[in-house]
Specification:
The protein is α+β, with helices and mostly antiparallel strands. It has 8 helices and 17 strands. The strands form 4 sheets. Strands 1, 2, 3, 4, 7, 10, 11, 12 and 13 form a 9-stranded mixed sheet that branches. A 4-stranded mixed sheet has the order 14-15-16-17. It has a two-stranded antiparallel ribbon with strand order 5-6. Strand 14, helix 8 and strand 15 form a beta-alpha-beta unit.
């Protein structure tokens, strides 16, 4: 029996973030749709798509927390990936037929580790042909499905750390790697390009997002475990968990009222330059903004309900 909405879910929901462990085979949109139906929330979104075959941390944002998605994308993400060597696929993952490219039998874990060093720092990465990147206004995957050979333009991504966890040697070798990276990184491209650098081809198999900023897969909840709006509400985290580091200011009652009207306020001690998060006396996030150095005030940009 499908989960039922509670009567309270029909009236309102609350703002916050649910740390979801996405199951293999479901899309990020399907997770959002299920939780919107379950909770009755007006606004539900996710902070970063996971491919259907991938599992792991998928932050789901509720109500005013959806306005923070652009900031969440700035957080580092950590993945554990199985890269199959000796073969390549049209999709750079296991969704297409694997075609033999070379013999990986002689590769050692040191060979893979050495090749992986070329994928750290700021690098140029070509997205997969089967991706949502637009080429002259059309999605690359649509062109690929028509039998064309799209070549998405390379883009700069940042890889903070890349290391080999294990290697199953042999003619169907599989390297398990851990990648900590910034937004926009394609793990399928890393698998493809690592295989090319090793001279044997490669594609992405199992993929788990083990961390998204401070959120980890060990503390994530499956959608199947949420049977009511109350289940979700009890597990919600404050919206600010998906914010990168930024200076905090505290607002008194009068200041909070002004900020909620979009008005600038003078706060003490005076904040420095850069993005600022403002909290009420109870510690709840009220708004994000910046400092006006001339008027020496906090200027709200995004006000949360």
């Amino acid at each position: 029996m499908p989960p039922q909405r509670s009567p309270s879910a029909e009236r309102s929901f609350v703002s916050g973030v649910l740390n979801v462990d996405k199951a293999a085979g479901e899309t990020s949109f399907q997770v959002v749709r299920k939780l919107r139906h379950l909770t009755g929330a007006h606004r539900v979104g996710h902070a970063g798509t996971l491919d259907p075959l991938a599992t792991g941390v998928l932050p789901i944002l509720f109500e005013s927390a959806t306005r923070l998605a652009e900031f969440a994308h700035q957080l580092p993400k950590t993945y554990v990936a199985d890269i199959h060597l000796g073969f390549a696929t049209a999709t750079d993952d296991a969704e297409a037929e694997a075609i033999a490219q070379g013999d990986p039998s002689g590769l050692t874990i040191d060979d893979v580790a050495q090749a992986l060093t070329h994928f750290t720092g700021r690098i140029l990465q070509e997205p997969p042909a089967f991706s949502a990147v637009k080429i002259e206004g059309e999605r690359a995957y649509r062109l690929a499905r028509r039998g064309e050979e799209p070549k998405p333009a390379a883009r700069e991504v940042e890889i903070y750390e890349a290391r080999v966890l294990d290697l199953v040697p042999g003619p169907q070798a599989v390297a398990r790697v851990e990648i900590r990276c910034g937004s926009g990184t394609y793990l399928r491209s890393i698998a493809r390009d690592l295989g090319r650098r090793l001279g044997v081809g490669g594609y992405l198999g199992r993929l788990v997002r083990t961390a998204y900023g401070p959120l980890t897969v060990e503390t994530a909840m499956t959608v199947a475990a949420q049977t009511s709006a109350e289940d979700v509400r009890d597990r919600l985290l404050p919206a600010e968990v998906i914010l990168p580091d930024m200076e905090r200011v505290r607002l008194n009652v009068e200041q909070e009222a002004m900020v909620r009207q979009g008005r600038a306020v003078r706060v003490l001690p005076e904040p420095g330059p850069g993005p600022i998060r403002a909290h009420d006396l109870a510690g709840r996030l009220v708004a994000l903004g910046h400092t006006d150095p001339l008027r020496r005030t906090f200027v709200p940009e995004k006000v949360l309900s």
